UniProtKB/TrEMBL annotation:
Gene Ontology biological process terms from the UniProt entry: L-phenylalanine biosynthetic process
Naturally occurring in which organism (per UniProt): Halalkalibacter okhensis
Any GO CC annotation of this UniProt entry: cytoplasm
Name listed for the protein in its UniProt record: Prephenate dehydratase
High-level lineage: Bacteria, Bacillati, Bacillota, Bacilli, Bacillales
Record-linked Gene3D superfamilies: 3.30.70.260, Periplasmic binding protein-like II (3.40.190.10)
Length: 287
């Protein structure tokens, strides 16, 4: 089975993919959209993409592309503990670091460290932490450092100048598995957490109190919501849809009843997936 992930090698997304699948052909893609497009065109059977970070919030690129461009079913999820390190090329002969390169979320997660140790260094954003590590590997003559994980340090033979530079200890990123088909998942090295159902709800523009009534449809059925988030519909200012995560798998009564009640209010409802979620053990995320 071909498994796409946000590359290059050494990203947290690769760690998530390898924590989900025992075997397979793991194929890196340069961007989240290209990874998702590969599933749509059947270049790969599944894609693993980041969806939310505990510190920086949702990965809007994933949500927006999933909703507006490639409506692919979500078939699984995994949360990976995040530990960031400052990586330098061992062949660099200088002592000063002028530029820090990494994914925007990774740089934001290490803000306090950067202000304390490298307050004058320039920041340059890249598509992934793995891409940043690869860039440092390929430019030993530049006064640069990457923020990335230990796997990237090993993959690109970089030196860890500082370890555990993230601002918060309980940091983690959630990833989802997208596929047009039902595939076998082994979830090696990961502990089962819960089943989750994700819905997208679009409110009628002229219905006062619609969101309150939507939430009431879950509340009186005692369905726990683990997340509710608004995103612009891209049809004009003030127009939003809502992504809602419900604790529990799709059943024959409760969630279908919610969908029927919400649709009766004139809202649009799409079920993006009902799937198991797992958590990778911290010692598995740093090997």
């Amino acid at each position: 089975m071909k498994i796409g992930f946000l590359g290059p090698k050494g990203t947290f997304t690769e760690m998530a993919a390898r924590g989900l699948f025992e075997t397979g052909d793991f194929i890196p893609f340069r961007t989240i959209p290209s990874c998702m497009d590969a599933v749509a065109t059947e270049e790969v059977q599944v894609a693993v993409v980041p969806v939310e970070n505990a510190i920086e919030g949702s990965v809007n690129m994933t949500l927006d592309y999933l909703i507006h461009k490639q409506r692919l079913p979500i078939i699984g999820g995994i949360t990976v503990p995040i530990e960031q390190h400052l990586l330098v090329n061992p062949d660099y002969q200088g002592e000063k670091i002028d530029k820090i390169v990494s994914h925007p979320h990774a740089i934001a997660q290490c803000h306090e460290f950067l202000q304390a140790y490298y307050p004058n260094a320039e920041w340059e954003y890249m598509n992934s932490t793995g891409a940043a590590a690869e860039y440092v590997k390929n430019h030993p003559d530049l006064a640069i450092a990457a923020i990335a994980n230990e796997t990237a340090a090993q993959e690109y033979q970089l030196k860890m100048a500082h370890t555990n530079i993230h601002d918060f200890e309980n940091n983690g990123t959630s990833f989802v598995v997208l596929s047009k088909e039902s595939v076998g998942v082994s979830y090696k090295g990961s502990a089962y957490t819960e089943d989750k159902t994700t819905l997208m709800v679009t409110l009628p523009s002229d219905y006062s109190g619609a969101l309150h009534q939507v939430l009431s449809a879950f509340a009186w059925r005692k369905l726990n919501l683990t997340k509710i988030e608004s995103r612009p519909t891209k049809t004009g200012l003030g127009n939003y849809f809502f992504i809602i995560d419900v604790e529990g798998a799709m059943d024959d009564v409760l969630i279908p009843g919610v969908v029927s009640e919400i649709e009766a209010l004139g809202c649009g409802v799409d079920i993006l997936g009902s799937y198991p979620c797992y958590t990778m053990a911290r010692n598995k995320a740093n090997v």
